[in-house]
């Protein structure tokens, strides 16, 4: 069966510090991978998605970046965090290809507080 | 623009039935999803509708009318553990998910 791992679960970072969140998927090949952010009391905002190694699409211009160094690994990074980067970050995956029946499955999430 | 509307908050009584509505305006349609999200946790998949009609899964049912741009999630025999936010999402013609802001459901004993 497929599983998704995301870490760290929580972190508190000072403004201006770097960030690295990591996500890996097991039990599948060529998944579509996603990074979402959810601000307190708000809906899900798509940040990045990837359909293959080295292929990253950015949905929202900001000081965050994403990389996919391996087929089942997705990393969210920042060189200098802003206060507005605080939120709940969710990695998610679907099966390969584009299909309405591809159910999005989320990792447990990473709660980031920038002080 | 693309838009998903659902009520911000609803309250219901344990053992009762509640219906959470979702209306949408999107560029194309490739399916509608409902997710449940408990406070502090990640969303989990509940249901997927792509054809008109009712899909039933135990205590939960989801209905879709594509002509009306409308769906609802019906929860029966409410339990305290059903207290959560319920997210409606529509997959558009580009296979991108458009998310509603979620409906916070409060269950009272």
Summed over residues and divided by their number, the pLDDT of chain A gives a mean of: 93
Largest β-sheet summary of chain A? 7 strands, mixed
Compute the number of strand runs of chain B: 11
Query: What proportion of the residues of chain A form beta strands (DSSP E)?
Result: over 45%
Radius of gyration of chain A: 14 Å
Helix content of chain A: under 10%
| Helix vs. strand class of chain B | mainly beta
Distance between the termini of chain B: 40 Å
Report how far apart the termini of chain A are: 39 Å
The percent of residues in helical segments of chain B reads: under 10%
As a whole number of angstroms, the C-alpha radius of gyration of chain B is: 13 Å
Outline of chain B, from the CA principal axes? globular
Q: Helix/strand/pairing class of chain A, anyone?
A: mainly beta
The largest contact between protein chains, plus residue counts on each side, is: A-B, 18 and 21 residues
Gross geometry of chain A: globular
Low-confidence stretches of chain B: none
Fraction of residues in β-strands of chain B: over 45%
Main attributes?
heterodimer, A: 115 residues, mainly beta, 4-stranded antiparallel β-sheet, 0% helix, globular, B: 109 residues, 6-stranded mixed β-sheet, 5-stranded antiparallel β-sheet, 11 strands
Written overview of the protein:
The complex is a heterodimer of chains A (115) and B (109). Chain A has no helices and eleven strands. Chain A has strands at residues 3-7, 10-13, 19-26, 32-38, 44-52, 55-58, 64-70, 73-78, 87-94, 105-106, 110-114. In chain A, strands 2, 4, 5, 6, 9, 10 and 11 form a seven-stranded mixed sheet that branches. A four-stranded antiparallel sheet of chain A has the order 1-3-8-7, with no helix packed on it. In chain A, β7 (64-70) and β8 (73-78) form a beta hairpin. Chain B has 109 residues and is mainly β. Chain B is built from no helices and eleven strands. Chain B has strands spanning 3-5, 9-13, 18-25, 32-37, 44-49, 53-57, 60-65, 70-75, 84-91, 97-99, 103-108. In chain B, the strands form two sheets. In chain B, strands 2, 4, 5, 9, 10 and 11 form a six-stranded mixed sheet that branches. The model of chain B has no long low-confidence stretch (mean pLDDT 96). The chains are: A mainly beta (115), B mainly beta (109). The A-B interface holds A 42-44, 46, 90, 98-109, 111 and B 30-31, 33, 40-45, 48, 50, 87, 89, 91, 95-97, 99-102.
């Amino acid at each position: 069966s497929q599983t998704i791992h995301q870490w760290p679960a929580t972190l508190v970072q000072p403004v201006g510090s770097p960030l690295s969140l990591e996500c890996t998927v097991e039990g599948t090949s060529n998944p579509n991978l996603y990074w979402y952010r959810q601000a307190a009391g708000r809906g899900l905002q798509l940040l990045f998605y990837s359909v293959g190694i080295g292929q990253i699409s950015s949905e929202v211009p900001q000081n965050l970046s994403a990389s996919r160094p391996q087929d089942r690994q997705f990393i969210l990074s920042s060189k200098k965090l802003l206060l507005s980067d605080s939120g709940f970050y969710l990695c998610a995956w679907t099966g390969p290809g584009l299909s309405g029946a591809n159910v999005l499955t989320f990792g447990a999430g990473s709660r980031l507080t920038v002080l | 623009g693309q838009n998903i509307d659902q009520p911000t908050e609803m309250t219901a009584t344990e053992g009762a039935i509640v219906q959470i509505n979702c209306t949408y305006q999107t560029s194309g349609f490739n399916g509608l999803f409902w997710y449940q999200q408990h406070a502090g946790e990640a969303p989990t998949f509940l249901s997927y509708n792509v054809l008109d009609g009712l899909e039933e899964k135990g205590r939960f049912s989801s209905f879709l009318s594509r002509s009306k741009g409308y769906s609802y999630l019906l929860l029966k025999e409410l339990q305290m553990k059903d207290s959560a936010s319920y997210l409606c999402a529509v997959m558009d013609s580009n296979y991108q998910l458009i998310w509603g802001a979620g409906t916070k459901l409060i269950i009272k004993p």
